[in-house]
Amino acid sequence: MEITLGDGPIDVEVRDGVLRARGLPYGRAVRFEAGRPVDPWSAPRDATRPGPACPQRIGRLDFVTGPVLRDLRVDEDCLVLSVTAPQDADRLPVMVWFHGGAYVAGGGESAKYDPTRLAHDGRVVVVTVTYRLGIFGYLAPNEAEADDNIGLRDQLLALQWVQRNVRAFGGDPDDVTVFGQSAGGDSVLALMVCDGAEGLFHRAIAQSAPLGVGTGTAEVARGRADMAAAMQAAMSASLGGASPRDVGAGRLLEAEAAAVVAAQRFSTLGGMAFAPRMGRRPLPRADELAARFAEAAQRVELLIGYTRDDGAPFVALQPRVARLRSDFVRRQAIRVARRPVTARIFGRGAEAFAADWRANGGRVGTYRVDWAPGDTPLGACHCIELPHLFGTPQTWADAPMLGRARGPDEALGERMRSAWAAFAHGGVAALPAGELRFG
């Protein structure tokens, strides 16, 4: 089936009443520069195969989710997105997904983020976005001509693409919900205060945003500035005088690893070393943030939440826990510490953010995911909702977080997808009263 976009025609796949267009370029990536417009084309472009992910090191949460990039190629020119819609879509709500991965891992084209069931059953058009990560997206060299917050600008560019093109897939550009998990959830919150983002979306779902890491105070902004300087110095030392613009992607990833090591002395901030920086375009200064969020509350409806044991994988990654020789002791340590860590990094921040949103006159719903497979110390851990929203039991069969069950709870998945789609259709008013609980 052929569809004509603003940049040119594309050939898409239609199967079982669902249309999928994959690997669509929404911009051109030039190293350390904001995304550039796509060159138009005239002959139909094949949109039946996934596009690339950003070059990256092995994801630190592969022991939770399994490999996310299986069978995906990587390329610096990775500004691509995919659109999934009911074949008969006509002015349906649009949901734009930003994946997680601590701003250093993941890709929107992953089979694990296949939104076919969400699009089909929820009657929504789903756009999954790939953006630049790590050293390619969030650590520009200390040069006057280098752009800031490049990965976040990529996300803005994708939302602008949606405004221009989503009608061709039966989506309504005036009814857009952005949603994301972990770093993707953090991105959603950042987008709400970005210059140039107003009007690009109307609802937002922030899943397990690590608000306890902190982005919105002057003290944190100064800490991130100091950390960025240390990371830039480590990057330069790793490159041994070579220009970061000229070396290969593999050499840059080695420099990224050195930068991450340098970030560890900055305590909690180093846990998410790469992230959008306040006071750098297109974000406001930290002292302007509260007012900007208060303004956003007037125009964006919000659904925000976390999983009961979000912190469990990060406890497991702590060197003191990882070094424990006894598997029994290690599992017990994770079980004991996972709830306090969850509260500190995810839970209290989400609850406070929801309360502030409400106090500023905004409409907000909250949720918590309690479902756990029962036979892993990770419990209802970070990412546990993802197999219930995306993919199939087969694509998630290698996810250790699912334990021996090796698959999501199908009934729970139907409930979650239904709730997410209901929010996209009708906002907070379409959700049951009170906090949503899953599991």
Automatic annotation (TrEMBL):
Domain (Carboxylesterase type B): residue spans on this chain: 22-322
Family: Belongs to the type-B carboxylesterase/lipase family.
Domain of life per record: Bacteria
Gene3D superfamilies: alpha/beta hydrolase
Protein's recorded name: Carboxylic ester hydrolase
A GO MF term: hydrolase activity
Keywords attached to this entry: Hydrolase
PANTHER family documented for this protein: CARBOXYLESTERASE
Alphabetized InterPro entries for the sequence: AB_hydrolase_fold, CarbesteraseB, Carboxylesterase_B_AS, Type-B_Carboxylest/Lipase
Enzyme Commission (EC) number: 3.1.1.-
